[in-house]
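In response to reviewer comment 3 from the previous cycle, which asked for concrete evidence that the modeling workflow produces usable outputs, we include below a single protein chain processed end to end. The sequence was submitted unchanged, and the resulting structure tokens are shown without manual editing.
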Amino acid sequence: QVQLVESGGGLVQPGGSLRLSCAATGSPFRVNDMGWYRRTPGNQRELVASISTGGDTYYADSVKGRFTISRDNAQKTAYLQMNGLKPEDTAVYSCNADVITDYGTRAVYWGQGTQVTVSS
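The workflow returned the following structure tokens.
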């Protein structure tokens, strides 16, 4: 069973940095696009950043220049380096992956979410 395991969330002061990790685990499979979403109580879930298998990236306007998404295909892991964090970045961040299983079935998986809190 494919599972996305997230880590790296926490409490940080404004201007600080965090690095989120998302590892896709399980039996042999292929991971296509991966992305990070975030949701706050007052907002719809939004796509923060995504990265394709080949390394093409997308960033929401609100995080451009501050966040960097990357991936290690051998480790089936995506990272989100978050610099210059602002209070408005506070949210639950969830990893998403488009996966082809060893049975040839395509499915979208979500991590459990990790809390990022930016506060003084």
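The CA atoms of residues 17 and 83 lie 4 Å apart. We consider this sufficient to address the reviewer's concern, and the full set will be provided in the supplementary archive.
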